[in-house]
Design brief:
40% helix, 15% strand
């Protein structure tokens, strides 16, 4: 059976789409079969041609369950679902089918407020501080804000994913730039570890 990861959250612009593609890209670089499912009806489904992973259209809610069911039966595969595009009811359904649900959020008061509500609503989900500042002063300020506003969720927060220059190329027609490869590979390993998996999990059954 495949492993399913959902990127959810009610806040637009928090990085669900780019981060879900970053995970797929990193998994693909490690030789793990990854499938990216787009569910937001406002987004285009990117072609798989310049990428190391498959892309699937799940924008029609009526067909989404069928897509998930079909892909879930594949062995040695990680199914990565880019969540409901600000549709809490879709996120709730997807989270029930997921092995891991991630809620990306930026270091702004509004993002943290919405992410807190999402974590309350999706009680098995984990928060993912996203596009975290890399300069010493800005990072320290973001960490203080995180502790102040979301310290109560400390056991459900992943370590921050830093700002990655060039990440936007993941959602371009040309495909990802090579300079983001190392960061995406590191991110993929982090997520596998969170799920209790590693690369040998997939290579042993290949």
């Amino acid at each position: 059976m495949s492993h399913t990861i959902v990127f959810a959250g009610d806040k637009g612009g928090s990085g669900k789409t780019t981060t879900s593609h970053a995970l797929c890209h990193g998994l693909g670089l490690h030789g793990v079969r990854a499938v990216h499912v787009t569910t937001d009806p406002r987004r285009l489904v990117l072609t798989a041609d310049p990428r190391r992973y498959a892309t699937v259209d799940g924008r029609d809610v009526r067909q989404l369950a069928k897509v998930i069911d079909q892909l879930a039966k594949r062995d040695d595969c990680v199914l990565v679902i880019d969540g409901g595009g600000g549709r809490p009811e879709v996120d709730a359904v997807l989270a029930k089918a997921a092995d891991l649900t991630l809620i990306p959020f930026l270091h702004s008061d509004e993002d943290m407020r919405v992410a807190s509500a999402d974590l309350d609503r999706l009680t098995d989900a984990y928060g993912l501080p996203n596009r975290w500042p890399t300069s010493t002063w800005a990072r320290a300020a973001a960490e203080r804000a995180l502790q102040s506003r979301m310290g109560v969720y400390s056991q459900r927060l992943l370590s921050p994913l830093p700002e990655i220059n060039g990440l936007i190329t993941l959602v371009s027609e040309e495909g990802p730039n090579q300079r983001i490869n190392a960061a995406c590979k590191t991110f993929a390993l982090r997520i596998l570890e969170r799920m209790g998996l590693n690369l040998f999990t997939f290579r042993a059954t290949a």
